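okkk here we go again. third time trying to get the flavin mononucleotide bound version out, last two times i messed up the smiles copy paste (missing a bracket lol). double checked this time i swear
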Amino acid sequence: MSLLPYPLLRPFLFRLDAEAAHELTLAQLERIQHTPLLALAAQPRIDDPLTLAGLRFPNRVGLAAGLDKNARCIDAWGALGFGFVEVGTVTPLAQAGNPKPRIFRLPQSRALINRLGFNNEGLAAFVANVRRSRLRAQGSSAASTASSCATASAQGTAPALVLGLNIGKNAATPIERASDDYLTALEAVYPYADYVAVNISSPNTQNLRALQSDAALEQLLATLAERRAELSAASGVRRPLLIKIAPDLDAEQIEAIAAALLRHGMDGVIATNTTLGRSAVQGQPHADEAGGLSGAPLLQASNAVVRALRQRLGPNFPIIGVGGVQSGADAQSKLEAGADLVQLYTGLIYRGPALVPEVARALASLPHPAPAR
Ligand SMILES: Cc1cc2nc3c(=O)[nH]c(=O)nc-3n(C[C@H](O)[C@H](O)[C@H](O)COP(=O)(O)O)c2cc1C
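finally!!
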């Protein structure tokens, strides 16, 4: 168990503005991550290996995108026991995001509303941070592929965690030019990613979610697939591409997305981002703030999308389930809905780092999916 008692820290953090608490926590993690002090925060990494999309995940719990947008604390996340870590969303150019305040707590529902709007330091700073991480500096980014991890296990060393790099578009780029931003970002992160997550589902960048619909999705996925083929031929390494989608989709839209993912040879889907829905939090302070709602009220809606995707994508297509996981049982419900792996964000704010091994243990008790995944 971590020596940092989150139940004691939480009241102090919750007295601060939500974004200030977030910044303070990241700054402390960044400060200690390459020092012996990291041992104070360290937790066991539960051993529950799974090979998916050609990558060997040491366990089935990951950090969701958005908590570490600039990839500042990769090694600290590793020490908390995650099996995989997704950093970003990064956009080609640095941008400030929306005016503050832009993150709100809804403690009654263990939820957050955010409208950050991809505030981040841009690709150059992001890639520099990724390269500085011990995870990447230690060896090639292929360190977590199935074969090299198998070697690591045979030698008795723990397999490295899997690193996902999540990319998006700048707010100032017109939506018709969105693929230019995604291609720029894909090229820059490709050499350092174990997988690349393509975020087309943030509600806080105007029209971004329109990329999930027919013609726009076709064009974006075709463009990404083509550039990935070129990058893969040039480097000799084929990086998995995963698409991150919203929970606010009807059955027909999910069907169309699933068909497009298969048609364009995508390697997985991340479901879901935050919701625009407010029915579960109506009447609570901050419930009417603009932005995306995350946390406990998202669990069922997000699971429903996972279930629908699994039905349409068949048993072997990789699905990462995210949205509302705040206990081992919540995480198990995602796997029962059809996810292979889960990610956490808002649960960490309410439950603290102990949630990571708790979820990893709960999932380790469930059977693994068919080996073909
Ligand atoms: C403050 C905040 C910022 C987020 N930023 C991003 C982001 O930059 N990119 C992204 O793909 N998802 C982002 N997300 C969405 C999360 O990755 C996740 O999909 C969502 O919060 C649902 O999971 P949760 O209920 O465990 O928080 C953000 C979520 C929050 C709460």
